## 1
Amino acid sequence: MDISRLVGRYMAVIVLMAALLAFLIPDAGLWISTGWIDYLLMIVMFGMGLTIRVDDFKVVFTRPKDVIVGCIAQFTIMPMTAYVLAKAFGLEAGLMAGVILVGCCPGGTASNVISYFAKGDVALSVGMTAVNTLLAPLVTPFLVFLTLNETVEVDTVGMFLSMVKVVLAPLILGFAITYLRPEVTDKASGALPLISVIAIALIVMCVISHSVDRLMTCGLAVFAVVTLHNLIGYAAGYGASIPAGMDRTRRRTLAIEVGMQNSGLATSIASTSFPSLAMATVPGAIFSVWHNISGALLAGFFAKRTEKEEQTKPSDR
């Protein structure tokens, strides 16, 4: 259990090390078949389903405004930012499809962990992630079709079916087991962070090892787009929470939730929905590495700010 917690805490470092290993020694990840990506992501989604309790959905009913603001921000800010950046940097069709896929996906499961370390509102984070993920099979294919249809051919039905298989089915199965047999989940909960981080690291290694040549040729533009996309998501997510009247804790939570995408899902969709666009999987792999690093740094910053605020409270009275 201690090892699992440690792995969860240093997820950014582990994912970065996996990415560097795959980039510097491509053979290290070539044994991981690209056909495994869907199954690895299904493991992550199943694990997320196991962590969701009925109580987590109380936030949807007790604070629906916060969840609605989060959902709207998630599915407007990130797709629009992705489209504008991809156009502004003149990315070719494959990279554009990959960047926009990242933008149209729901928040990443890592956002819940990052919110915890940032001393954010974890219940709100889990609630928004769960609702966004449940909406994703309908919303993501629609957004991708809306933004990419004029550039590349989009199999909207195929994408929907893929998301039902990869996201919805394992998520609901995990939730059902937790609801019906909570004692089973309690026994397995200690290992979940370890399993999830290993699965994410393997996805990143797989994509990078199989894409090293393409990564070398795509230039700095895609790295700049991915970085800006993530940072703008943090800033815009925080900004969207202000007119909604959220307190600082919830503002920070919304910033993390909006800025961190389910890039593993984007990679999975890219490999199945855009097989003719070899570069489409690259942005998701880069985002997987970068947002874990930036998220960890942001969590540290927010946590320190919270500690300072708590220390100054007695003197303010």
## 2
Amino acid sequence: MSRYLQDRYGVPGDKVDAVLRECLPSESAYQTIIMEWIRNTYPRSFVWKAAAGPYSRGGIPDICAIINGRFYGFEVKRPYLGKLSRLQEETIKAIKAAGGKAAVVSFPEQVAEVIGGG
């Protein structure tokens, strides 16, 4: 994407991140789209947004869902910009080790791949 912005629009390389941050929707907008997609696609699912706070566990994915008896955790990141923290990486690994499914996503299509993959 950065090469595209540089070549197509003449955006200097050191300004690409700033342009993307300004133009892309917020992370919460992607979370809302994904939660709505899950609820519409899997009406019997149980979906919630993990709340962060002083008494919550760090690293928990933004969106958690139980679909057909299976736990899913989706860490939502803005495309091209979002990066996982070390704690988020470790939490995703721990969820997978416990038998759940977890992934970093930006779009409903990515969520569909994780759910469809079993």
## 3
Amino acid sequence: MFTLPDLDYDYSALAPHIAAEIMELHHSKHHQAYVTGANTAWDKLAEARDTGNFATVAKLEKDLAFNLGGHINHSLAWKNMSPDGGGEPVGALAEAIGEGFNGFATFKKQFTEVAMTIQGSGWSVLAWDVCGSRLSTFQQYDHQGNLPAAQIPLLVLDMWEHAFYLQYRNVKADYVAAWWNVVNWADVAARYEKARAQAGGLL
């Protein structure tokens, strides 16, 4: 039901900022594990319904949330990066970031701080806040925890160790600094426009 998406670029395309070895392991092994885990949990939930044995439903739903969160976050992360990325956003997204964060430079510092202060494993997220009709940043623990209500993710940064350790060891600051060079602002801008257009019917 859930499948590993193909990348829009080769594993080596984001080097030197993100090494090919990391990309291959991250995509083909780690992301694939979340796809497999989500499918397994989904199948076991279907089996529970068929047999009427719901003793493990709570655990299975947690397994599904964790693995499906990993699948969705990674699927977004691959699109958020590009060999032609970096620089700053333009157009409506740039205006929204400027208004919401007192300029791009301040936004970049805030997003970086969100990433650098995650305790354990998680993601730094830029999202469209449906309720507030504005951009927001937040930490997402693991793949699914601490997710505020009514947030549509636009840009995500994976801060699990498997995303950077082979290349940057424990120097997370260098990894985050390098990641800014591959951010696909065209993808983020398209998601921003789509989120704003869809959000009006949610409340």
